[in-house]
UniProtKB/TrEMBL annotation:
The active site is at 103 (proton acceptor). Keywords: Isomerase. It comes from Ideonella livida. Transmembrane segments: none annotated. InterPro entries: NagB/RpiA_transferase-like (IPR037171), Ribose5P_isomerase_typA_subgr (IPR020672), Ribose5P_isomerase_type_A (IPR004788). Coiled coil: none annotated. Homodimer. The keyword Isomerase applies. GO terms for cellular component: cytosol. GO terms for molecular function: ribose-5-phosphate isomerase activity. Catalyzes the reversible conversion of ribose-5-phosphate to ribulose 5-phosphate. Belongs to the ribose 5-phosphate isomerase family. This is Ribose-5-phosphate isomerase A. Its EC number is 5.3.1.6.
């Protein structure tokens, strides 16, 4: 099975976790695109979606799925999103698609984060994937310097990318994130950091993992 087929498999499987009549939180990325496509036939059975990016909003609307403003929603039963890496505790690296800030906002509104990913995303220790950090542009150099001092690794601004919120992404390579909760808490406090792409406080409760043998369900 190709990676695209595995993504389609988990995108389809995620539909069974949507609570009928409720609002669904929708993440961003190629795996989530498969979920959005699979959700479209059920659009009349949900109250709408809260989206985590302009790209996902456009896809949802194009398929006739109602998109609600996050400010008008107090709670969402389920948030479905992909990940760049997920460990065996449900902690994730996210933000490969630069949507991490809105993803964390929607995840914060949700009771359950359901991660959909192909099996290549499951890792023992987070950090082989460069850690994305959304940063206010004037703080980029200071945040890069601070990463070097605090954790080592090589940090650089992602070329040619501006987030939906008008900020830049700093990608940090060469990290071994052994305590995701601690690193998330620390980096989140640095001036100019909008969001760090470690999802430990908002970790997945369930991961639907696409494998050649079918969907493996991990619970955390
Ligand atoms: O965090 C994300 C976007 O900011 C995505 O969930 C992550 O990059 C995975 O994307 P894909 O499903 O395309 O592999």
């Amino acid at each position: 099975m190709t990676q695209d087929e595995l993504k389609a498999l988990v995108g389809q499987a995620a539909v069974a976790h949507v609570v009928p009549g409720s609002i669904v939180g929708v993440g961003t990325g190629s795996t989530v695109n498969c979920f959005i496509d699979a959700l479209a036939p059920l659009k009349d059975q949900i109250a709408g979606a809260v989206s985590s990016s302009v790209k996902s909003t456009e896809r949802l609307l194009a398929l006739g799925i109602k998109v609600l403003d996050a400010n008008e929603v107090s709670s969402i039963p389920v948030y479905i999103d992909g990940a760049d890496e997920i460990d065996h505790g449900g902690h994730m690296i996210k933000g490969g698609g630069a949507a991490l800030t809105r993803e964390k906002i929607v995840a914060d509104l949700a009771e359950r984060f359901i991660c959909i990913a192909d099996a290549s995303k499951l890792v023992d220790t987070l950090g082989a994937f460069p850690l994305p950090v959304e940063v206010i542009p004037m703080a980029a150099t200071q945040v890069i310097r601070r990463f070097g001092q605090a954790y080592g690794g090589q940090a650089q601004v992602r070329a040619g990318v501006t987030t939906d919120n008008g900020n830049v992404i700093v990608d940090v390579r060469g990290l071994q994130i052994t305590d995701p909760l601690a690193m998330e808490a620390e980096v989140s406090q640095w001036p100019g950091v909008v969001t760090v792409g470690i999802f430990a406080r908002h970790k997945a409760k369930v991961c639907l993992l696409g494998t050649p043998e079918g969907v493996r369900t991990l619970t955390f």
